[in-house]
Design goal:
The chain is of the alpha+beta class. Helices cover about 25% and strands about 35% of the residues. It has 17 helices and 41 strands. The strands form ten sheets. The chain has an eight-stranded antiparallel sheet with strand order 14-13-10-11-12-15-24-22. Helix 4 runs antiparallel to helix 5 (about 105-115), helix 5 (about 105-115) crosses helix 6 and helix 7 packs across helix 8 (about 175-190). Residues about 370-380 have low confidence and may be disordered.
C-alpha cells in the first residue's frame, strides 16, 4: 500500500480524501494557492505545498506545478478529487511517466468517457440509447445557431470537458444560442482549459438519475445503486438522495447492468458514475460518464457502507474489489443537501466573505457497515445519522476564485420520511453567519409537497420558484408554535433583566403574564402560565401549547419542545423580540406588553430608498465587459454587462426600457454587492 498520497484538489473533497487516507495509515500532501494558505485541507494534511496565485488556471490546473509538488514530497500516488485535473488525461499521462499512481481510471478510459463527445459516440456504437444531438466540434456562434435550428429548440449547449454545471447553457431561441455558445466557451476555457462545445436536444421534464460503478484492474465491476439528482439549479445539483424514489427494482437493475457494461467496454478501473436522464415512463438515456469521484458520493456510501475513496485507493494499488454484485445491498435512505455560498434572496448569486459563525450540527454514525467485504451489521432500527463533509471553518474566508460550495450535509435513516425529518432538524441546527447562503432554500425544498412525494424533475426549481426565492410563508400552525416559543423565551429574558445588579431600591420590576406576539403579519395575544418544567401558553381563542426548553438568553440556537414536537430555532436579538430563522422562514418576532403593542401599531413604516433607475451589482465579482454606452437606449431584456464570480459568467439585463445616463464601472473592475454599475434617465 502507498505510504504517501498527494491530493490534487482543495476544499471539502481534499478534506474528505485526507480522512480516509488517515484511517488507512497513509500520509497526505496538500497543495494550495495564495487564497488557500489558511484553508482547512492545508491544516489537515501532513504536508502542504504552495503552487501559485489564486486563479485555478494559474495554480490548481497547472500540471507542471502539481508535478513539482509531487517530486518535492515524494508522493507515490495522487488523488484528484473532482473538478480541476480529475478528468484530464494529460495529467494522468504525466503521472504515469513519473511512475506515480493515479487514483482514478486508466488514461484510455478518461479519454473515452471523460470527453462528452467521444463518450456519446462510444455509447451509440455500443447500442446505448442517447439523446439526439450534434457530436462534432462547433466552430463559432453562427454554426451553433444553425445546428440548434436543425436539432430543434430547446437545446443544451455543453462544454465537452465540462462538469459541475460549468460551461452549460439552455437555449430556447437563436439569440440565446448565440449568447450561450460564447459564455459556455469562455467558462470552459477558464475552468478546464478546453473550450470545445457540443449541442444536444434538451429533454423537457426529465429526471436526472445516475449509477455509481466500481471496477478493479482484475476485470471485476459492480454497481452500487443509484442516486436521484433531479433538483438542480443552472444545471448544478442542489439536493441528491439514494436510492431514487422513482425507480423500481427492474429499472435499477437494467440501468446498473448497462452502466457496468459501458465501464468494462473502456477498461474502466476505479469509482465512476454513469449519468442518465429518465422520462416519466422510466425510459432511460445515457447522458455522460464522469470518470472520477462525484460530489454526491456520500449518499451512496451511507446506504451501502462502502467507503468509495478507500476502494479507489486500493484499486489504484492493484487490489481486487472486496465484494461482488450479489454482496451489494441498499439499506435505508440517504439525502444530501449542498450548502452553497449563494444568496437565495438575490437570485442565488455568489456571496463571498468571512464566516463569522460556522457551527454544523453534530455528526452521528449509523447505517450499514462494510469492512474487508464483510457486513458488520445494519443500523439499529429507528436511528438516524448526520454527516457533514466540509472544507471550511469558523473565521475562514469564502473566496471568489473557486466553487461556492461550503459543505455537503447528509442524513441517513431507515426510511425516506425519517431521512427527510432528520434533514429538516439538521438544516435548522446549521449556523452560518457572515455570508449569504442557501440554507433557507434547502429547508424550503425539504418541506415542498413535490419533494416529499418524490415526483420532482430537473425543472423543479425553475417551475416552483420562477421569480426566485423570497423566503417561506409559514402556515398558521407553525406560526403559533413559534409565537408560543418566543413568548416563553422573552419571559425568561425579561426575568433575567429584572435581576441585574445595581438597581435602585424600591424599584423592583414585575414581569407580567400577558403578552402580544406579532410575526409574519399576524398578531397573537397570549397568557403565559410558567412552572419549573416549562410554560403553558394560552391564546385568546382558547388554544394552548406546552413549551419546554433549556434556552438561556444569549444562546443563538434554541431547541424547543412544543407539545412533543421538537423545533430548532436560530435566534437573534431585535428590539422587543427576536429574529427567528426556522424551516426556511426568516422572521422578526416582536413580543410586547399589551400597551407596547398598542403603541407599536401607531409607528410609521420605514420606506426603502428608490434604486429603480440604477443597475446594482448583485454579487461581488469582476466585470468582464460592458455592452452599452452613455446615451444609448436599451430595451427590456437587453444585455447590459457581464460579471464573473466563482468561475461563472452572469449576464445582467435591463428590467425595462430606458436610456443610459451614466456608467460607473468598466471591464476589469472588481465590484462589491450593491455597487452602482450604471444609471438611467
Amino acid at each position: 500500500m502507498f505510504d504517501k498520497i498527494l491530493i490534487a484538489n482543495r476544499g471539502e473533497i481534499a478534506c474528505r480524501v485526507i480522512k480516509t487516507a488517515r484511517k488507512m495509515g497513509i500520509k497526505t500532501v496538500a497543495i494550495y494557492s495564495d487564497a488557500d494558505k489558511q484553508a482547512l485541507h492545508v491544516q489537515m494534511a501532513d504536508e502542504a505545498v504552495h503552487i501559485g496565485p489564486p486563479p485555478a488556471n494559474q495554480s490548481y490546473i497547472v500540471i507542471d506545478k502539481v508535478m513539482e509538488a509531487i517530486r518535492a514530497t515524494g508522493a507515490q500516488a495522487v488523488h484528484p478529487g473532482y473538478g480541476f485535473l480529475s478528468e484530464n488525461s494529460k495529467f494522468a499521462e504525466a503521472l504515469a511517466a513519473e511512475g506515480v499512481a493515479f487514483v482514478g481510471p486508466p488514461v484510455g478510459a478518461i479519454e473515452s468517457m471523460g470527453d462528452k463527445i467521444t463518450s456519446k459516440k462510444i455509447a451509440q456504437e455500443a447500442g446505448v440509447s442517447t439523446v439526439p444531438g450534434y457530436m462534432g466540434l462547433i466552430a463559432d456562434a453562427d454554426e451553433a445557431v444553425k445546428i440548434s435550428n436543425q436539432i430543434g429548440y430547446p437545446v443544451m449547449i455543453k462544454a465537452s470537458a465540462g462538469g459541475g454545471g460549468k460551461g452549460m447553457r439552455i437555449a430556447w431561441n437563436d439569440e440565446e444560442a448565440r449568447e450561450g455558445f460564447q459564455s459556455s466557451k469562455n467558462e470552459a476555457a477558464n475552468s478546464f482549459g478546453d473550450d470545445r462545445i457540443f449541442i444536444e436536444k434538451f429533454v423537457t421534464q426529465p429526471r436526472h438519475i445516475e449509477i455509481q460503478v466500481l471496477c478493479d484492474t482484475h476485470g471485476n465491476g459492480i454497481y452500487l445503486g443509484e442516486r436521484e439528482c433531479s433538483i438542480q439549479r443552472r444545471n448544478q445539483k442542489v439536493v441528491e438522495e439514494a436510492p431514487s424514489p422513482f425507480l423500481d427494482e427492474d429499472t435499477r437493475k437494467a440501468m446498473g447492468e448497462q452502466a457496468v457494461a459501458l465501464a468494462k467496454a473502456v477498461g474502466y478501473a476505479s469509482a465512476g458514475t454513469v449519468e442518465f436522464i429518465v422520462d416519466g415512463d422510466k425510459n432511460f438515456y445515457f447522458l455522460e460518464m464522469n470518470t472520477r469521484l462525484q460530489v454526491e458520493h456520500p449518499v451512496t456510501e451511507l446506504i451501502t457502507g462502502v467507503d468509495l475513496v478507500e476502494q479507489m485507493i486500493r484499486v489504484a494499488d492493484g487490489g481486487e474489489l472486496p465484494l461482488r454484485q450479489e454482496d451489494v445491498k441498499l439499506t435505508g435512505w440517504a439525502i444530501e443537501n449542498r450548502l452553497y455560498a449563494e444568496d437565495p434572496y438575490r437570485g442565488f448569486l455568489p456571496s463571498i466573505g468571512r464566516l463569522s459563525r460556522y457551527r454544523p450540527p453534530a455528526e452521528t454514525a449509523a447505517g450499514p457497515l462494510l469492512e474487508n467485504g464483510k457486513w458488520q451489521g445494519d443500523a439499529p432500527a429507528g436511528e438516524a445519522a448526520v454527516r457533514n463533509d466540509t472544507g471550511v471553518y469558523e473565521g475562514g474566508e469564502i473566496s471568489m476564485y473557486y466553487d461556492p460550495m461550503i459543505a455537503k450535509l447528509c442524513t441517513w435513516a431507515p426510511t425516506r420520511d425519517a431521512a427527510i425529518d432528520a434533514m429538516r432538524i439538521a438544516l435548522d441546527s446549521f449556523e452560518v453567519e457572515g455570508i449569504g447562503h442557501n440554507l433557507p432554500f434547502l429547508s424550503a425544498v425539504m418541506d415542498h409537497p413535490i419533494f416529499i412525494d418524490g415526483t420532482m424533475t430537473t425543472a423543479f426549481i425553475e417551475e416552483q420558484y420562477p421569480e426566485g426565492f423570497e423566503g417561506v410563508e409559514l402556515p398558521e400552525a407553525d406560526l403559533r408554535k413559534i409565537a408560543a416559543s418566543c413568548a416563553a423565551m422573552h419571559r425568561v429574558a425579561e426575568i433575567r433583566r429584572t435581576r441585574v445588579s445595581g438597581r435602585m431600591d424600591n424599584h423592583e420590576r414585575k414581569v407580567g403574564t400577558d403578552w402580544s406576539v406579532s410575526l409574519q403579519g399576524q398578531s397573537y395575544n397570549v397568557v403565559i402560565d410558567a412552572d419549573r418544567d416549562g410554560a403553558t401558553v394560552r391564546f385568546d381563542d382558547g388554544a394552548e401549547l406546552r413549551v419546554a426548553s433549556d434556552w438561556t438568553p444569549g444562546d443563538q440556537l434554541a431547541t424547543v419542545d412544543v407539545d412533543g414536537e421538537i423545533l430548532v430555532l436560530k435566534t437573534g436579538k431585535v428590539t422587543q423580540g427576536f429574529r427567528i430563522r426556522s424551516r426556511g422562514a426568516d422572521l422578526k418576532v416582536h413580543v410586547r406588553t399589551p400597551r407596547q403593542a398598542e403603541l407599536a401599531h401607531l409607528m410609521p413604516e420605514k420606506v426603502a430608498p428608490d434604486t429603480s433607475k440604477m443597475l446594482l451589482c448583485p454579487m461581488p465579482g469582476l466585470i468582464v465587459k460592458v455592452d452599452v454606452e452613455v446615451g444609448q437606449e436599451v430595451q427590456e431584456g437587453q444585455a447590459l454587462c457581464t460579471i464573473e464570480a466563482m468561475k461563472m459568467e452572469n449576464i445582467l439585463r435591463a428590467e425595462k426600457k430606458g436610456v443610459v445616463s451614466k456608467i460607473n464601472a468598466g471591464a476589469g473592475d472588481s465590484l462589491a454587492v450593491d455597487d452602482v454599475i450604471m444609471e438611467f434617465e
